Amino acid sequence: MSRIDTPAVGRMQTIARNPVMIALVMTLAIAGCASKKNLPNNANELGLGGAGSATPGSQQDFTVNVGDRIFFDTDSTSIRADAQQTLDRQAQWLAKYPNYAVTVEGHADERGTREYNLALGARRAASTKDYLISRGVPANRLKTISYGKEKPVAVCDDISCWSQNRRAVTVLGGAGM
Amino acid sequence: MLRRTFFRLMVVILAGCGLIASPANALVELNINKGNVEPLPIAITDFLQGELGKKISDVVAADLKRSGLFAPIDRGAFIEKISNPDAAPRFEDWKVINAQALVTGRVTQEADGRLKAEFRLWDTFAGQQMTGQQFFTQPENWRRVAHIIADAIYERITGEKGYFDTRVVYVAESGPKTARKRQLAMMDQDGANARALTNSNDLVLTPRFSPNRQEVTYMSFENNQPRVYLLQLETGQREVVGNFPGMTFSPRFSPDGQRVIMSLQQEGNANIYTMDLRSRTTTRLTSTAAIDTAPSYSPDGSQIAFESDRGGRQQIYVMGADGSGQRRISFGDGSYSTPVWSPRGDLIAFTKQSGGKFSIGVMKTDGSGERILTTGFHNEGPTWAPNGRVLMFFRQNAGAGGPQLYSIDLTGYNEQAVPTQGFASDPAWSPRLE
């Protein structure tokens, strides 16, 4: 763009810098405390299928009878006791069916910012992967990916949903890095 | 698909019909640092001649009104009908309807097909022209001409640069939350001319403009490999930024446009790296077992603000551009994230999470002087207008539905919804095109 420019007329006076201060002190800083009990640990408990009806060694067998997902406390990447049981079953199942490579998908609930949740999901996937390795699953069968808060499974505005979305899902095959 | 609009524009200052203001004669002005400013009553007449003239003055009026600093007067109240925008108006007719400023203009087609748009801004109480300019451009650029005129009026009256001739890149979202589709989109700052930059096949997040507005860096899950990309807006060409051994995310340009700064995820840790776009060399800036992310340069490029949970919860830190002198600056209740350095250099905008609410706020670059601008169920991801006076962010209300874009003045006043066709998040304001 070309510009031919000289001030026409008049002159602006300098504006006084006088920023208004709006101090809003937030005093309630208690993060939501996660319920550690009564969470579904597999698709059967989620009502997704009947136990025992799946062909052994199939995707459905893994999802329904073993449990494909574990849950985390708010901002936490620790593998809870209930999650350890699920991952132990996963490790046993993967030992029994050694042809499967798996991807651990890490997820976060929506009560955080996008960038942080991408990293938090990755952390959860990593700690899940580390646990599976500690239970004998070869590292070269395991990949991870994080979807942050972008792929929730439960949609509501309270902890009953957020606690289901803070999860790591072990996917047979799957994509990841 | 996308083509750069070469905007051949010529500005000519129009002489003021002999009505030269003497410096002693104070003209209408607005102190926009005062917070809740009483909007300035302004009469914006239909530009002569015909439909296009009316459309241009409509856009000018809408820009000024949305700024919260101007109150365009209903045209039905106008007494004088402007028939010659070059002649001095009957100031009495405008004073009586309390128009402190008056805009007149004309749009004509040149013999070569170009559009000529001219306007004059009058101070009705001083009885003087404040400024007058004319522009030549292609007819399809009429909206940009209107935004440039609005910028000129804003600058003449407030003393600050305008931000109307700017664009916003964002993530356009559609579909239910459990199967949300996301694509990059770009629009004018007023929501007009919205268009998609990517298809919705791959998850895309956090688009950011380059300083010259010709490129966007963003994160994409293309091929299930979450990585930072660079998109050339003119050609639509895309490329991965760097060859990192893991997920890269949260990119942003350096102020000189030569580097992209981003996070690299390795196992449980996220650290901050830069990649020089010419030499392709990468530099690691942080080295912790924490989540270090959301880096943002100071406008002079000498410092970087970022967030880290190295102390437990997410807090804002500042370091030198080489990674030196890392220090925490946020110490309020709750956690702080997504720091974004103001284009003026004096403030850092952030998202704050406290008491189950999400706020947008600003603090000085040493962490002092925190001010919360808006608080609610979920507000996230501030971006600065290039004049540093206005912030845009996205808001998700409780309940069904999806995120929407909002703008708010630095003072915390004048919160406005930014119109988008569907849900929208992750806005990034373009720089001004000089």
Automatic annotation (TrEMBL), chain A:
Keywords: Cell cycle, Cell division, Cell outer membrane, Lipoprotein, Membrane, Palmitate, Signal
Localization, UniProt: Cell outer membrane
GO BP terms in the entry: cell division
Membrane topology: Lipid-anchor
Gene3D superfamilies: OmpA-like domain
Keyword field contains Nucleotide-binding: no
Annotated ranges, domain OmpA-like: 59-176
Primary location: membrane
One GO CC term on file: cell outer membrane
Top-level taxon: Bacteria
Function according to Swiss-Prot or TrEMBL: Part of the Tol-Pal system, which plays a role in outer membrane invagination during cell division and is important for maintaining outer membrane integrity.
PANTHER family hit by this protein: LIPOPROTEIN YIAD-RELATED, STATOR ELEMENT OF FLAGELLAR MOTOR COMPLEX
Subunit structure: The Tol-Pal system is composed of five core proteins: the inner membrane proteins TolA, TolQ and TolR, the periplasmic protein TolB and the outer membrane protein Pal. They form a network linking the inner and outer membranes and the peptidoglycan layer.
Family membership noted in the UniProt record: Belongs to the Pal lipoprotein family.
Protein name: Peptidoglycan-associated lipoprotein
Species assigned in the record: Ensifer adhaerens (Sinorhizobium morelense)
Record gene name: pal
TrEMBL record, chain B:
Record's subcellular location: Periplasm
Listed InterPro entries: 6-blade_b-propeller_TolB-like (IPR011042), Tol-Pal_TolB (IPR014167), TolB_N (IPR007195), WD40 (IPR011659)
Coiled coil: none
One cellular component term from this protein's GO annotations in UniProt: periplasmic space
One example of a Gene Ontology biological process annotation: protein import
Gene3D superfamilies, sorted: TolB, C-terminal domain, TolB, N-terminal domain
Broad class of the protein's primary localization: periplasm
Name of the protein described by the UniProt record: Tol-Pal system protein TolB
Organism, as annotated: Ensifer adhaerens
Chain's gene name: tolB
